Amino acid sequence: MKEQTHIGMNRTGLQMSPFDAGSMQSPVPASMMPATPGDDSALAELRSTYITGAEPLGSVPIPGTIKGAITTGVSTLAGGQPQLLLDKLGERLAFERTGTRLYDALITKFEATQDESTSMTLADLQQIRQDEARHFAIVAEAIESIGGDPTSQTPCADLVGVESMGLMQAVCDPRTTIAQSLHAILVAELADQAGWEMLIALTQEHKQSAMVTDFNVALAEERTHLQRVQQWFEEATVGRAISAGAGIDDISDANPSHMH
Questions:
Q1: What CA–CA distances, in Å, run from 45 to 38, 41, 56?
Q2: Distance of CA 164 to the CA centre of its chain
Q3: φ and ψ of 140, to 5 deg
Q4: For 223, phi and psi rounded to 5 degrees?
Q5: Distances (CA, A) of 20 to 3, 10, 13, 26, 82
Q6: 38 with 214: CB under 8 angstroms?
Q7: What are the phi and psi torsion angles at 27 (to 5°)?
Q8: Per-residue DSSP letters for the chain?
Q9: Cβ of 187: how many Cβ atoms within 10 Å?
Q10: How many whole angstroms from its chain centre is CA 33?
Q11: CA separation, residue 77 to residues 71, 80, 88, 204, 248 (Å)
């Protein structure tokens, strides 16, 4: 069964009020025009003032351990950017935490709706949720291995936390369907894959071979997650048959004239 989209009393469009639409589209009387001329340039100018005067989003904390201070110092003397690596590790840590919570929310919705529109199973979701939690632990261990503090919030961790708020709201909203929730999960998985790829490149640059090995394993698992979520999203939206490509053949077989 594919996604069921209902027609109802949606009043958001102009066509739902044809009488008012006419008056809204007619020229604005001079008496209703603003007393002073102007446009949105003043608003843009105000925003520009805030942008140029704003403080940075945050900072990478100073290492709180002797090991961290030594690691950071040696890396800096060698021309590296340990603060960038720590910031991006913090980003990945925050995103994997969110990923775990996203799948917790999807599992709850899946169990509540008893949805059978996709080939997705509870065991599938629990496995991916377990992978995300393990990835979180891998990154936390990596941060500690270079003397960082995995409990601190770096600037990029703060950023992805804010970015992810909309995804969590979409999945946790009781009104959203499984298909709509999977769309939010798909956005997260796409961003997750790109994030791992960048982090691996950065760890290679910093010659962190142990991290590169662990992170490549995580990336391979994330790619599998992405493929599976994309398939489930298509099945939930257009139906399993069309998602698998069988629907087009079935239509052609049933209506030979449509083959030309």
A1: 13, 6, 20
A2: 6
A3: -60, -40
A4: -65, -35
A5: 34, 16, 11, 10, 61
A6: no
A7: -55, 140
A8: ------------SGGG-HHHHHHHHSPPPGGGS-SS---THHHHHHHHHHHHHPPPS--PPPP-SHHHHHHHHHHHHTT--HHHHHHHHHHHHHHHHHHHHHHHHHHHHHHHHT--SSS--HHHHHHHHHHHHHHHHHHHHHHHHTT--TTS--HHHHHHHHHHHHHHHHHH-TTS-HHHHHHHHHHHHHHHHHHHHHHHHHHHHTT-HHHHHHHHHHHHHHHHHHHHHHHHHHHHHH-HHHHTTHHHHHHHHH-GGGG-
A9: 16
A10: 43
A11: 10, 7, 20, 18, 62
| Dihedral over Cα of 31, 37, 40, 43: its sign | negative
176 conformational bin, left if phi > 0, alpha if psi -120 to 50, beta if neither: beta
- Per-residue pLDDT reduced to its tens digit, 42-64: 899 999 999 999 999 999 887 76
Which phi and psi (to 5°) does residue 183 adopt?
-65, -45
- One-letter amino acid at 169 equals Q
pTM equals 0.82
**119-131: pLDDT as tens digits:** 999 999 999 999 9
Q: For tokens 């069988």, what's the residue?
A: 246
* Cβ partners under 8 Å of residue 158, min gap 6: 57, 58, 94
Number of Cβ within a 10 Å radius of residue 141:
13
- Residue pair 103/132 in contact (Cβ under 8 Å)? The answer is yes
Exposure on the CB side of residue 255, measured as CA atoms within 13 A: 8
